[in-house]
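Title: Comparing notes on inverse folding

I've been comparing how different people in this forum approach sequence design from structure. To keep things fair, I'm posting one structure and asking everyone to reply with a full sequence. Here's the target:
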């Protein structure tokens, strides 16, 4: 199918162009950990989380793959899509194209998995959306870091500064062990939110912005122990 798509888009393309396309796709199998937009395959995204996730190309033949013919193979593809959907902390967008290229000869259908997962992004009748506001001054919060802390950057901090410093020291050690940047473990905004909320249970920790099931599995016990003062760093 890839060869056919390439031929539709570039009729004069030969074997070198096809090989180059395969090499480019292979190089994108491992997601980089940088501050910015990350392009990653669903397999490479396992264990990672982002505030916003865009899943593209969700068409039959791609999701599920055309060669997934048995019930077990189709279910494995469904689980893979679930992995992609659950990488999003706050924002998720699913999309597909009617054709591979503008004016393309091959029509494409949305993935058969979408009817049970896709939700139209439009307001419900009679309901209005309210923007998050600072819990101190009441002004709208425009930055993602402000929404995580639930206060404006200019407003005075009201969190446990000693706990925040313990969390930062612990985060540095975790980042060193895992050989990743510190923000991959937790952002400063998330550490501030933890020091602010001082969660004492798993449900309370999950309610802190920036903490999902993956981060909970990796770091939840340590964070709760730090909050209780049971873990020294």
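Reply #1:
Here's my take.
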């Amino acid at each position: 199918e890839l060869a056919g798509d390439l031929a539709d888009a570039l009729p004069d393309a030969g074997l070198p162009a096809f090989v180059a396309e395969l090499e480019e796709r292979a190089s994108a199998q491992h997601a980089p950990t940088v501050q910015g937009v990350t392009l990653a395959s669903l397999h490479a995204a396992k264990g990672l989380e982002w505030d916003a996730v865009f899943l593209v190309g969700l068409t039959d033949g791609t999701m599920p793959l055309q060669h997934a013919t048995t019930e077990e193979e189709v279910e494995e593809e469904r689980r893979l899509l679930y992995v992609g959907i659950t990488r999003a902390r706050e924002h998720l967008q699913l999309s597909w194209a009617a054709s591979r290229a503008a004016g393309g000869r091959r029509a494409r259908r949305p993935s058969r998995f979408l009817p049970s997962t896709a939700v139209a992004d439009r307001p419900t009748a009679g309901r209005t959306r309210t923007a998050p506001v600072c819990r101190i001054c009441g002004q709208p919060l425009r930055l993602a870091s402000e929404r995580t802390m639930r206060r404006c950057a200019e407003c005075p901090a009201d969190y446990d500064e000693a706990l925040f410093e313990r969390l930062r020291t612990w985060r540095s050690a975790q980042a060193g062990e895992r050989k990743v940047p510190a923000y991959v473990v937790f952002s400063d905004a998330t550490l501030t939110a933890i020091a602010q909320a001082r969660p004492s249970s798993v449900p309370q920790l999950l309610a802190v912005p920036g903490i999902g099931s993956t981060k909970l599995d990796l770091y939840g016990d340590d964070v709760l122990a730090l909050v209780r003062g049971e873990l020294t760093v």
